[in-house]
Amino acid sequence: MSLGRVPFAACLALLLLLPVTLAAQGGTVTGRVTDGQTGEPVSGARVAVSGSVLGTVTRPNGTYRLQVPPGTHEIRISAIGYRLESQTVTVGTAATATADFSLSRAPVALEELAVTGTRAPERSSVEAPVPVDVLTAAEIRSSGRTETAQIIQMLAPSFNFPRTSIADGTDHTRPATLRGLAPDQVLVLVNGKRRHMSALINVNGTVGRGSGMVDLNAIPASAIERIEILRDGAAAQYGSDAIAGVINVILKANAANEVTVTAGTTTEGDGETLQSSLAYNAPLGTRGFLQLAGEYRHRNPTDRAGVDLRPQYFANDPREANADRTTSWQGDGRMMDRGGFLNLGYELGASIEAYGFAGLGIRDGDAWGFFRRPNDNRTVRAIHPNGFLPEIHSDITDGSAVAGLRGETSGWRWDVSTGFGMNRFSFTVRNSNNVTLGAASPTDFFAGTLEAGILSLNFDAVKPFEVGFASPLNVALGAEVRQDRYQLSPGEPDSYRDGGVRILDGPSAGSLGAVGAQVFPGFQPSNAIDIDRSNIAAYVDLETRLTDGFLIGVASRFEDYSDFGSELTGKVAARLELSPAFALRGAVSNGFRAPSLGQSWFSSTATNFIGGVPFENRTFPVASPEAKALGAVPLKAETSMNLSGGVTIQPVPSFSITADYYRITIDDRIVLSGNFNQPQVVTFLEQRGFRGVSGARFFTNAVDTKTDGLDVVMGYVVQTGRTGTLRLTGGFNVTETKVENVDVTPGILAQFGQTLFDSVELVRMEQGQPKNNVNLSANYSAGDWTFTARGVRYGEVFVRAAGTDRSLDQTFGAKVVADLSLGYSFGGRISVTAGADNIFDQYPDIFSSPPSATVGGNSFFGINRYSLQSPFGINGRYLYGRMTVTF
Fold first, then answer.
1. Parallel, antiparallel, or unpaired: how do β-strands 473-490 and 815-826 relate?
2. Exposure winner among 98, 172, 426, 517, fewest CB in 10 A?
3. Quick one: DSSP state of residue 744?
4. pLDDT beyond 60 at 91
5. Spatial contact of 177 and 183, defined as CB atoms under 8 Å apart
């Protein structure tokens, strides 16, 4: 049954059948939270009932109101920059108790509480048995970066977000990685619920080739309270895809109302960005909240392309002498994002709450391919006498909704929810032509649509049991039913069809021309697919303290896919506190990841340049007759083992450091094969009706890898005077991935002289991302002033050139990118910030091989000055200003 034909309202109706009569009348806790030194209200502090799902956030005046069941409760307050505080209050039926808090300053970033990685009550990352980073709202807004994925990269050393260019759809939805693994090997959650994947599959020469990803930039930064990153294998806790870890985005709730406007530009005079956002909290009486966030972002393109050294016209054409050679493009595309999120909660009674959150994002993007010269056989010169720069336009719609009920019954804290997510990616090619249509060819083509979605129903329950240990045994049980869908719809016929017209003029007149729209031939009816699958999962998660200093957790999860069978995963994690200041921790787990529907069924034709020569490479589904004839076999699930061990040190409350080693081994890793371009392969394809396709590839479980790494995170705080605070944070990551085994090339491809997984892709997997990153930041606040300085050192990257000339291989050296910003607050209502990202105007190394008109080198005849694998992009210095009005 197709996901598109299952109404989301039907799943929501299941929630309405739940026994809401379980709710009972309770009492109310109210109070005010203030700064212990200044007496000023503390806005946005988190108020929680220990051992309960109940909680809220303080209002701008520092007050809060929380409904609780009758009885005695521990109320905990946590806020960035303050020590954790708690009080015990007793509340009667229909009664009100007051608990005011005066917080003491102790602003250590690592003491921010986290919920990811445990189903026990939240705890600080220093207390966790596995590493968890918490990126706070203050850190998220501390730079001029406007995209969520860029913000995470700035703050988390183990996270990489390369800024790809000239990579078709990947220019519009860029992949991100965690701990050096693939983009689809990290699980993304929003408020603890699984986030859907993008419909796009990365098939060109970028980091993450052969994988899908979650579009993190579809989540507006203005909607985010904090981001928790679990840097440990968690397939047994949260489900497959969590091989590298988990990113949990926590949405704002009861936050301050504010409007923010940010504007900036590069010092090259391009990449102008304008972003405006609104965060608004609408109380739902005294029982709930509705938090709204809306965002608009417009970014103009950047261009750092060089001069094209090749001849532009045919020999003896007088136009060659004055030819324009700055015709190409390399940089960020043009992008316009509009989107919003809502987050709501409503107390139906003292022990039951309805909640929900939803988001909708719309993105229009423009990016460009390689320039087609006037003397190119892919140019219809009657339409483009001076050549053309084809453009890929994207229309991306991303939507999601989750609704649920949670509460407490007989000591069990339970949560039942249903969720829906979808991502639609439509391609339009502009300023192009289809050579086989001749002078009658259109210049704009609708090239087709990709769509991916999920529909899920989840149940989770947690209860502590007294069994004689130092703490109760926390028992968590849960189940999930999920349906995944993938759909590919063809483009208009002119975008892919062979019109039968031969090349009209030039030395190749009368020859066969390239079929389809240039830069991105449209999806054909033979590519069309509408497929879905179901997944059923159940888990158990146990955690307790055997002694006061020894925490242990055990988890196991069973998953069954309708197309890939079943798998049982497990995890054991422990933390041994040797003293109040020093602890050891570690974990061992296994995991798996079923191939995505896109990896199983995606097919397309794309133009790839190898050594300056264009190839029309066709991606075949593994189940297609063509792929089978080339030796493809059905995909199977990846399997993994994850080992981690580390220490946590906190000799004083104002200083903490964690260091964690990890090893991740993955067998049967799913990759996209190399491009099979040997002439015998082309003949083989032509005999099967694929004229005009000069290469083939397919997905395969070809690789086993081993990844070793070390993460070090540090925080230190110094108080200066009555209101001054200096916060120092640092992070270090080193990651090394080795390909341990590559499957034998199928016989027929071996006969053609091809390699299943070539050295270019192998080197990109091993050395295409920085092996080490260092992140250091200092934030100083005093009164109304705030100053932030941050430096990130990105380690070296190695790129192997296609072909056999190893002199074109190049190591791109480590670079340090520094950011500075200065902010001032006018009475707490208006704040302004001015800053510079990449203040020293750092660029990656340029390609070292000297190009010429006949020798392309790595720079493609001088056009591409920089590698597309640069982890920090190629835009240089960016200046910005920001104003926020709180109301």
1. unpaired
2. 98
3. P
4. yes
5. yes
